[in-house]
Amino acid sequence: MSWSERRENWTPQTEDARADGDVDYGRVIHSASFRRLQGKTQILSLGDSDFYRTRLTHSLEVAQIAGSIARQLGKSFPDHPGAAHLPDRSMIHAIGCTHDLGHPPFGHGGEVALNYCMRDHGGFEGNGQTLRILSRIESFSSEAGANLSRRTLLGVLKYPLPYTQVRNLAIQPSLLKGTAVVSLLDVKSCKPPKCYLDSERDVVDWILEPLSLADRVRFEESDERPGKHALPRHKSLDCSIMDVADDIAYGVHDLEDAIALGLVSKDEFFAALLDKCPTFLDALKAKYRNESGNDVFSAMVTDLFGGNASRKHCINRLVHHFVTAVEFVELPDFKEPLARYRVVMQSGQREFLNALQGFVVDKVITSPEVQHLEFKGQSMVVAVFEAINSDPKRLLPRDQYVRFVNSGSDVRVLCDFVAGMTDAYLLRTYERLFSPRMGSVFDKL
């Protein structure tokens, strides 16, 4: 029960010099699901600009930052017992590149929509779909998907509890009441719990086999939250590195997009962050004393909202500030090192990063301009899913229908098909099905 094992036997050729992480990284970046991330939005609608990030560029940035965090931990804490168990660069890059594979078209709007569509069939959650893609759907093996090593899949397993165990039964995905002309999702009730899908229980059992019974019981603990779904409490060392990297990329790079595209103003940023970044300002004063004068915060804001060069320079400093603030924490009740050691960000820098993320959410993600697009996207996802589900033989592409039949008509296979669509492919499918003047028999499905 080694962390290097794979669910399907695979032996590298004798001349192959690659380690486990190298093999896994290669399979991830050569996968169809990874390529499709270039057609899935990070925040904005595709076609609005050639500058902003997609899920693909975001995933590459997360992988790079995760690699930097692992290297930084080794340098900052060489004698810490957790340092001996850090992943190699290829493995943490593989985990970083996979972390968004399961996100459906139109981001979290699509996730909410598919959770509603699957309300009677085990639900839907993007991180759970990532595990499903890697363990079932990718085609690097006959029965084990990408057939990645156990340790890489442990790093991908962000929430190690199944849908049915963490969902609050009082929260049932439903439609809004009171609408007379159209049916609308009750988004709050349709938001899924953080979990893996029950269809992958056997995969998770295999991933967690090396844990002792006591470690596994602890690893599967969760926190109950009144009026919400329960939240899994634990994740592995590698997953915690990826998680911090994702937060940095989300907080810093999405901010860069928002500023570059004029979605937030200098005054808004100044008002929201004035008292939220003492650690960063102190670092700037210490390292660049002659650069900013006495008003370091104003100088930072000027750089962020200046030209491309000054903004990128400041963004790089922000990323460095957060990466160099990571540290180990130890959970001594665990015996297995990959569960015993985690990575967190120091409190001052964490508060600053939280403030940056909150600013992006408040001023961009929840803005009407973005929410109009998310609303429309989730409506199209529901419409396409329900149309296909009404008559799979008639509406599914032939290869997908074969997969559907071979599964015993499992609705989860229809969900896989819709979840795997890019934004543009979902839009074209919607228009072919519902737009009177759109579509041709010669269109490639």
Give an overview of the whole structure.
The chain is globular and about 70 Å long. The chain folds into two domains: 20-244 and 327-367, Hypothetical protein af1432; 370-434, no CATH class. Helix 4 packs across helix 7 and helix 20 (368-390) packs across helix 24 (423-434). The longest helix is centred in the middle third of the chain and has 24 residues, at 237-260. The protein has helices spanning 20-29, 32-35, 55-76, 89-98, 107-117, 126-137, 150-156, 163-166, 187-190, 201-207, 213-219, 237-260, 266-273, 278-287, 289-292, 296-304, 308-323, 337-340, 347-365, 368-390, 392-395, 398-406, 411-419, 423-434; strands at residues 222-223, 231-232, 326-330, 341-345. The protein has 24 helices and four strands. It starts with 19 loop residues before the first helix and ends in an 11-residue tail after the last helix. With 445 residues, the protein is mainly alpha-helical.
